[in-house]
Amino acid sequence: MQRVAVSGASGKTGWRVVEEALQRGMSVRAIMRPESTLPPALAAAERDQRLDVQRLDLNSGEALLHALKGCTALVIATGARPSINLAGPLQVDAAGVQSQVQACRAVGLQRVVLVSSLCAGRWLHPLNLFGLILVWKRLGERWLERSGLDWTVIRPGGLSEDDGRAEAEGVVFTGADQQQNSSIPRRLVARVCLDALESPAASGRIIEITSSPDQPLRSLQQWLEASPVQAGST
């Protein structure tokens, strides 16, 4: 059975990735900060030993290596939180991704899906007022692209907490640097990340996603089959 590690598992996107993976019958290892907590349903899954939870500081190299051993894939759902610390995006979205990539290589974990952001790498964007977050997200993407690992970058639009939208909206899929705005529920982002793990054609690609009630329902695999292969780097 595939064992999927999810870093940032207590975050708003991360815990949804964990929940969706469990619903698909996957073996899941949730990686989270020692002080973080899981939603009640996932906390119950941990108590029932249906979910393996590793609490650690991602800056601890040895602890991260231990957490990734035995896993076959990693979804990186870490992200800098709003803070007065303007170095946070550099530390989390660039250096933090680099550390996770290096740990994957060290333990032989090959398949990695990174949750990034629409407009990653763009300088002239309001989000960059928060510590140049889009610039550092693009650097994190590049660390992964150049790692030699089997990678996919998912760039979602504005993230919505409304899970109800996930049942009523279709995903708008494009390649890199083709979308600039619009939103998507975090629940759909989680599902696309897991679909990417199961889709060999998603390897080596940057995939931008938003959603709309006017968009026909279409799976990632269907879009991949219909879209031309593009280079991952931009």
Automatic annotation (TrEMBL):
PANTHER family: FLAVIN REDUCTASE-RELATED (PTHR15020), OS06G0360300 PROTEIN (PTHR15020:SF11). InterPro entries: NAD(P)-bd_dom, NAD(P)-bd_dom_sf. The lineage of its organism: Bacteria, Bacillati, Cyanobacteriota, Cyanophyceae, Synechococcales. Residues 8-200 form the NAD(P)-binding domain. It holds the Pfam family NAD_binding_10. This is NAD(P)-binding domain-containing protein.
